[in-house]
Specification:
The chain is α+β, with helices and mostly antiparallel strands. The chain has two domains: 89 residues; 242 residues, BirA Bifunctional Protein, domain 2, CATH 3.30.930. The protein is built from twelve helices and nine strands. The strands form two sheets. A seven-stranded mixed sheet has the order 1-4-5-9-8-7-6, with helices on both faces. A two-stranded antiparallel ribbon has the order 2-3. A hairpin with a 2-residue loop joins strand 6 and strand 7. The longest helix has 37 residues. The chain binds phenylalanine. The site of phenylalanine has 11 residues, from strand 8 and strand 9.
Length: 353
């Protein structure tokens, strides 16, 4: 019987030496150690042994069983190692291959212009103020002295919002809380003055504005930057000086400004401001329609009624304000003639700037 057991061990050793994969190892385990396996068959024969032979055979059974278990363990390890080797060989990396180039992003011309504007005004002592794009009608119009029947209030220009789709206004909000998409950055004038309470106030507010309008020179969303300076003794001369400094810093020292009388309800007097066309140098070209000038912004002295409306004494303080179309500035800077190109975000276009 002991010979039988030793033969079993030798057979297991042979078979496991050839095992190729885990399945073969498992098959060998079942064959030798399984319930219906060879070792169990030998054990069943032990009943027939003389009692004094049993301990010796029992010992041999145990040591053969331990031997087979050890062989199984080693075969399992060998199979796993071989599989890992094969994997590594198959997945070999060629670290000398050149990498795949990563595409570089480009800052948008409007973002670049916006950053430049903020930096120029920071040097002139202005800080950035912010306001919401969903604005109260009161701030967008009423407090800016728009008469109720002003044409800019027309549905054609202003995007109204369905109050049912909006979150409730904060407690103590002025009445009526009609909200719209702001049509200009001027409502931030009101917010800045209400927040500062007391002049001097020097703020700029870059941001998105919305008007129901769309063609080569208009998009329903565009960018403006508002500038507001309220202090004792501020005059039209300060407005002119600030405008000049800004335009020269943005486009270059050769650029000139010109003011034309205009009308805005919230400024008195009001002006439209032209700059000598940066592309033709004021000589006149197709884009400026031969005039040599381009209109870039609206400006004026803050209407005294607007000041008293936010609790600032117009006898003591005066202020100027202007609003610039940032997209327009970016177009002029890069010689782009269709505003919509700025918002298509075609990388091939943006890459050229
Ligand atoms: N808010 C005006 C517009 O959008 C521009 C403006 C701003 C005019 C400040 C005067 C003063 O047309």
């Amino acid at each position: 019987m002991i010979d039988e057991l030793n033969a079993l061990l030798a057979q297991a050793k042979d078979e496991l030496a050839d095992a190729r994969d885990e399945a073969q190892v498992e098959a060998a385990r079942i064959k030798f150690l399984g319930k219906k396996g060879s070792l169990s068959a030998v054990l069943r024969g032990m009943g027939k042994l003389a009692p004094d032979e049993r301990p010796r055979v029992g010992e041999a059974v145990n040591s053969v069983k331990a031997g087979i278990e050890d062989l199984l363990e080693r075969a399992k390890k060998a199979v796993a190692e071989r599989a890992l080797d094969a994997d590594l060989r198959r997945e070999k990396l060629d670290v000398t291959l050149p990498g795949r180039p990563q595409k570089l992003g480009h800052r948008h011309p409007v973002s670049l212009a916006m950053d430049d504007i903020i930096e120029i005004f920071a040097r002139l002592g202005f800080h950035v103020a912010d306001g919401p794009e969903i604005e109260w009608d009161v701030y967008n119009f009423e407090k800016l002295c728009f008469p109720v029947d002003h044409p800019a209030r027309d549905m054609q220009d202003t995007f109204s919002l369905d109050p049912a789709t909006l979150p409730p206004p904060p407690k103590g909000a002025p009445d009526p809380p009609t909200r719209i998409l702001r049509t200009h950055t001027s409502p931030v004038q009101i917010r800045a003055m209400l927040e500062a309470r007391k002049p001097p106030i020097r703020v700029i507010t870059p941001g998105k504005v919305y008007r129901c309008d769309s063609d080569v020179t208009h998009t329903p969303m565009f960018h403006q930057v508002e500038c507001l300076h309220v202090e004792e003794g501020v005059s039209m001369a300060h407005l002119r000086g600030t405008l000049d400094a800004f335009v020269k810093a943005f486009f270059g020292p050769h650029i000139q400004t010109r003011l034309r009388p205009s009308y805005f309800p919230f400024t008195e007097p009001s002006a439209e401001v032209d700059i000598s066309h940066p592309l033709c140098g004021g000589k006149g070209c197709k884009i400026c329609k031969g005039s040599g000038w381009m209109e870039v912004l609206g400006a004026g002295m803050v209407n005294p009624d607007e000041l008293s409306g936010v609790g600032i004494d117009p006898e003591k303080y005066t202020g100027y304000a202007f609003g610039v179309g940032i997209d327009r500035l970016a177009m002029l800077r890069h010689g782009i003639d269709d505003l919509r190109l700025l918002f298509d975000n075609d990388v091939r276009f943006l890459q050229q700037l």
